[in-house]
Amino acid sequence: MLRTSDSLEMTLEQEAIEFFLKEEVLKFGDFTLKSGRKSPYFFNTGSLCTAAQLAMMGELYARKLQAESVFDNATVIFGSAYKGIPIAVAAAIALANTNRSSIRSVSDRKEAKTHGDKSAFLGVLNPGDKVVIVDDVITTGGTKMEAIEKLREAGAIPIGLIIAFDRAEEAEGSSITAKESFEKETGLPVFALANIHDVARIRPDVREAVEKYFASLPKL
Predict the structure, then answer these.
(1) Peptide bond before 61: cis, by omega within 30 degrees of 0?
(2) 158 φ, ψ (degrees, to nearest 5)
(3) Residue 132 CB burial class (10 angstroms; 0-12, 13-18, ≥19)
(4) Contacts of 57 (CB under 8 A, 6+ apart)
(5) What angle in degrees, to the nearest 10, is found between the helix axes of 51-67 and 84-94?
(6) Are 196 and 18 in contact (CB under 8 A)?
(7) Under DSSP, is residue 73 helix (H, G, I), strand (E, B) or coil?
(8) Partners of residue 131 on adjacent β-strands
(9) Which pLDDT score is estimated for 2?
(10) For a pLDDT cut of 70, what percent of the chain falls above it?
(11) Within a 13 Å sphere around the CA of 54, how many CA atoms are in the beta-carbon half?
Protein backbone atom coordinates (compact mmCIF):
# COMPACT_ATOMS: atom_id res chain seq x y z
CA MET A 1 0.00 0.00 0.00
CA LEU A 2 1.18 3.52 -0.78
CA ARG A 3 -0.67 5.03 2.16
CA THR A 4 1.76 5.59 5.02
CA SER A 5 -0.95 6.27 7.58
CA ASP A 6 -4.64 5.42 7.76
CA SER A 7 -5.22 9.04 8.76
CA LEU A 8 -3.71 10.33 5.52
CA GLU A 9 -6.01 10.43 2.53
CA MET A 10 -4.31 9.39 -0.69
CA THR A 11 -4.24 11.81 -3.59
CA LEU A 12 -5.69 10.85 -6.96
CA GLU A 13 -2.15 10.39 -8.20
CA GLN A 14 -1.27 8.01 -5.35
CA GLU A 15 -4.45 6.02 -5.91
CA ALA A 16 -3.62 5.72 -9.60
CA ILE A 17 -0.09 4.51 -8.87
CA GLU A 18 -1.33 1.97 -6.33
CA PHE A 19 -3.91 0.70 -8.82
CA PHE A 20 -1.38 0.44 -11.67
CA LEU A 21 1.06 -1.51 -9.52
CA LYS A 22 -1.54 -3.78 -7.92
CA GLU A 23 -3.06 -4.73 -11.28
CA GLU A 24 0.40 -5.01 -12.91
CA VAL A 25 -0.39 -2.35 -15.47
CA LEU A 26 2.96 -0.89 -14.44
CA LYS A 27 5.66 -3.54 -14.24
CA PHE A 28 9.33 -3.34 -13.33
CA GLY A 29 11.97 -5.62 -14.82
CA ASP A 30 13.91 -5.80 -18.08
CA PHE A 31 11.84 -4.71 -21.08
CA THR A 32 12.49 -3.81 -24.72
CA LEU A 33 10.20 -1.03 -25.91
CA LYS A 34 8.70 -0.71 -29.38
CA SER A 35 11.44 1.81 -30.17
CA GLY A 36 14.08 -0.83 -29.36
CA ARG A 37 15.16 1.00 -26.23
CA LYS A 38 15.75 -1.05 -23.07
CA SER A 39 13.67 0.04 -20.08
CA PRO A 40 13.38 -1.09 -16.44
CA TYR A 41 9.60 -0.49 -16.52
CA PHE A 42 6.66 -1.10 -18.83
CA PHE A 43 3.14 0.34 -18.80
CA ASN A 44 0.12 -1.20 -20.51
CA THR A 45 -3.59 -0.75 -19.78
CA GLY A 46 -4.49 -3.48 -22.27
CA SER A 47 -4.71 -6.09 -19.50
CA LEU A 48 -7.48 -4.26 -17.65
CA CYS A 49 -10.64 -6.18 -18.46
CA THR A 50 -12.50 -7.30 -15.31
CA ALA A 51 -15.54 -5.34 -14.16
CA ALA A 52 -13.69 -4.10 -11.07
CA GLN A 53 -10.60 -3.06 -13.04
CA LEU A 54 -12.61 -1.16 -15.65
CA ALA A 55 -14.70 0.52 -12.98
CA MET A 56 -11.62 1.74 -11.15
CA MET A 57 -9.96 2.93 -14.34
CA GLY A 58 -13.10 4.83 -15.30
CA GLU A 59 -13.32 6.41 -11.85
CA LEU A 60 -9.73 7.67 -12.00
CA TYR A 61 -10.21 9.29 -15.41
CA ALA A 62 -13.59 10.72 -14.42
CA ARG A 63 -12.17 12.30 -11.29
CA LYS A 64 -9.29 13.81 -13.25
CA LEU A 65 -11.74 15.23 -15.78
CA GLN A 66 -13.78 16.78 -12.97
CA ALA A 67 -10.68 18.17 -11.26
CA GLU A 68 -9.37 20.17 -14.23
CA SER A 69 -11.33 23.34 -15.02
CA VAL A 70 -10.35 23.22 -18.70
CA PHE A 71 -12.79 20.31 -19.02
CA ASP A 72 -15.73 22.03 -17.31
CA ASN A 73 -17.68 22.40 -20.58
CA ALA A 74 -16.68 19.08 -22.15
CA THR A 75 -19.50 17.25 -23.93
CA VAL A 76 -17.59 14.24 -25.27
CA ILE A 77 -14.93 11.82 -24.03
CA PHE A 78 -13.09 10.48 -27.06
CA GLY A 79 -11.01 7.29 -27.13
CA SER A 80 -9.10 6.22 -30.23
CA ALA A 81 -9.27 2.61 -31.37
CA TYR A 82 -8.27 0.46 -29.71
CA LYS A 83 -6.94 1.12 -26.20
CA GLY A 84 -8.72 4.43 -25.87
CA ILE A 85 -12.18 2.92 -26.40
CA PRO A 86 -12.63 1.11 -23.04
CA ILE A 87 -11.10 4.09 -21.25
CA ALA A 88 -13.63 6.51 -22.78
CA VAL A 89 -16.56 4.17 -22.08
CA ALA A 90 -15.48 3.48 -18.49
CA ALA A 91 -14.92 7.18 -17.77
CA ALA A 92 -18.34 8.12 -19.15
CA ILE A 93 -20.06 5.42 -17.07
CA ALA A 94 -18.24 6.67 -13.96
CA LEU A 95 -19.88 10.07 -14.51
CA ALA A 96 -23.41 8.62 -14.77
CA ASN A 97 -24.50 9.67 -11.29
CA THR A 98 -22.89 13.11 -11.36
CA ASN A 99 -23.82 16.45 -12.91
CA ARG A 100 -21.88 15.30 -15.99
CA SER A 101 -24.25 12.41 -16.77
CA SER A 102 -25.00 13.71 -20.28
CA ILE A 103 -21.37 13.50 -21.42
CA ARG A 104 -20.98 11.13 -24.37
CA SER A 105 -18.40 8.42 -25.11
CA VAL A 106 -17.20 8.48 -28.72
CA SER A 107 -14.51 6.55 -30.59
CA ASP A 108 -13.25 6.29 -34.14
CA ARG A 109 -13.22 3.40 -36.57
CA LYS A 110 -9.97 1.89 -37.81
CA GLU A 111 -11.58 1.03 -41.13
CA ALA A 112 -14.32 2.95 -42.91
CA LYS A 113 -17.69 1.16 -43.23
CA THR A 114 -19.16 0.74 -46.70
CA HIS A 115 -22.71 -0.05 -45.56
CA GLY A 116 -25.27 1.06 -42.97
CA ASP A 117 -23.86 3.74 -40.70
CA LYS A 118 -20.89 5.04 -42.67
CA SER A 119 -19.78 7.50 -40.00
CA ALA A 120 -16.10 7.57 -39.12
CA PHE A 121 -17.13 7.51 -35.46
CA LEU A 122 -18.90 5.22 -32.99
CA GLY A 123 -21.27 7.25 -30.88
CA VAL A 124 -22.76 10.69 -31.46
CA LEU A 125 -20.38 13.52 -32.37
CA ASN A 126 -21.87 16.91 -33.18
CA PRO A 127 -20.29 20.04 -34.63
CA GLY A 128 -19.25 22.27 -31.75
CA ASP A 129 -18.76 19.42 -29.28
CA LYS A 130 -15.95 20.07 -26.83
CA VAL A 131 -13.88 16.92 -26.63
CA VAL A 132 -11.59 15.38 -24.01
CA ILE A 133 -9.26 12.83 -25.62
CA VAL A 134 -8.26 9.89 -23.39
CA ASP A 135 -5.51 7.32 -23.85
CA ASP A 136 -2.98 5.32 -21.84
CA VAL A 137 0.35 7.00 -22.72
CA ILE A 138 2.01 9.38 -25.15
CA THR A 139 5.02 8.16 -27.09
CA THR A 140 5.26 9.81 -30.52
CA GLY A 141 1.74 11.24 -30.28
CA GLY A 142 0.94 10.16 -33.84
CA THR A 143 -2.36 8.44 -33.05
CA LYS A 144 -3.53 11.42 -31.04
CA MET A 145 -2.58 13.84 -33.82
CA GLU A 146 -4.75 11.81 -36.18
CA ALA A 147 -7.60 11.90 -33.67
CA ILE A 148 -7.37 15.68 -33.33
CA GLU A 149 -7.48 16.05 -37.11
CA LYS A 150 -10.51 13.74 -37.42
CA LEU A 151 -12.37 15.55 -34.67
CA ARG A 152 -11.71 18.98 -36.15
CA GLU A 153 -12.77 17.81 -39.61
CA ALA A 154 -16.08 16.77 -38.01
CA GLY A 155 -16.49 20.23 -36.51
CA ALA A 156 -15.68 19.18 -32.95
CA ILE A 157 -13.28 21.09 -30.69
CA PRO A 158 -10.55 19.12 -28.87
CA ILE A 159 -9.85 20.87 -25.57
CA GLY A 160 -7.25 18.62 -23.97
CA LEU A 161 -6.09 15.12 -23.14
CA ILE A 162 -5.99 12.82 -20.14
CA ILE A 163 -3.47 9.98 -20.18
CA ALA A 164 -2.92 7.31 -17.57
CA PHE A 165 0.85 7.51 -17.36
CA ASP A 166 3.62 9.89 -18.34
CA ARG A 167 6.90 8.08 -18.93
CA ALA A 168 8.53 11.56 -18.75
CA GLU A 169 11.13 10.63 -21.35
CA GLU A 170 12.43 13.16 -23.86
CA ALA A 171 10.82 13.12 -27.29
CA GLU A 172 13.06 11.87 -30.08
CA GLY A 173 15.38 14.63 -31.21
CA SER A 174 14.20 16.97 -28.45
CA SER A 175 15.26 18.18 -25.03
CA ILE A 176 11.67 18.19 -23.74
CA THR A 177 9.45 15.24 -22.89
CA ALA A 178 7.04 13.64 -25.35
CA LYS A 179 4.15 15.07 -23.31
CA GLU A 180 5.62 18.59 -23.39
CA SER A 181 6.43 18.28 -27.10
CA PHE A 182 2.85 17.26 -27.85
CA GLU A 183 1.48 20.18 -25.82
CA LYS A 184 3.78 22.59 -27.63
CA GLU A 185 2.85 21.27 -31.07
CA THR A 186 -0.90 21.09 -30.55
CA GLY A 187 -1.51 23.84 -28.01
CA LEU A 188 -3.61 21.37 -25.98
CA PRO A 189 -2.94 20.58 -22.32
CA VAL A 190 -2.15 16.98 -21.37
CA PHE A 191 -2.93 15.75 -17.87
CA ALA A 192 -1.47 12.46 -16.59
CA LEU A 193 -2.90 10.42 -13.73
CA ALA A 194 0.69 9.65 -12.70
CA ASN A 195 4.27 9.82 -13.96
CA ILE A 196 7.35 7.68 -13.49
CA HIS A 197 9.20 10.17 -11.27
CA ASP A 198 6.35 10.16 -8.77
CA VAL A 199 6.38 6.37 -8.76
CA ALA A 200 10.10 6.43 -7.99
CA ARG A 201 9.53 8.97 -5.21
CA ILE A 202 6.83 6.83 -3.59
CA ARG A 203 8.50 3.46 -4.21
CA PRO A 204 12.11 3.49 -2.88
CA ASP A 205 12.59 -0.09 -4.09
CA VAL A 206 12.47 1.01 -7.75
CA ARG A 207 13.98 4.48 -7.35
CA GLU A 208 17.56 3.46 -8.13
CA ALA A 209 16.59 1.60 -11.33
CA VAL A 210 14.56 4.57 -12.57
CA GLU A 211 17.33 7.06 -11.76
CA LYS A 212 19.93 4.91 -13.55
CA TYR A 213 17.67 4.59 -16.57
CA PHE A 214 17.18 8.32 -16.95
CA ALA A 215 20.88 8.95 -16.38
CA SER A 216 21.66 6.56 -19.26
CA LEU A 217 19.38 8.28 -21.78
CA PRO A 218 21.19 10.34 -24.45
CA LYS A 219 21.20 14.08 -23.81
CA LEU A 220 20.98 16.71 -26.55
Answers:
(1) no
(2) -65, 135
(3) buried
(4) 19, 45, 48, 86, 87, 90, 91, 164
(5) 70
(6) no
(7) coil
(8) 76, 158
(9) 34
(10) 90
(11) 14
d(C-alpha 167, C-alpha 26), whole Å? 11
Residues contacting 109, CB < 8 A, separation 6+:
81, 119, 120, 121, 122
Question: Which helix (H) or strand (E) covers residue 182, if one does?
Answer: helix 178-186
Question: What residues are labeled active site?
Answer: 113, 115
Q: Which of 80, 192, 201 is nearest to 144 (CA)?
A: 80
Residue 116, C-beta contacts closer than 8 angstroms, at least 6 positions apart: none
Higher-confidence position of 141 and 182 = 182
* Residues in a beta bridge with 27: 42
Please report which confidence band the pLDDT of residue 115 belongs to, taking 50, 70 and 90 as the band edges.
low
**Rounded-to-integer distance, Cα 199 and Cα 26, Å:** 10
Note whether 95 and 62 are within 8 A (CB): yes
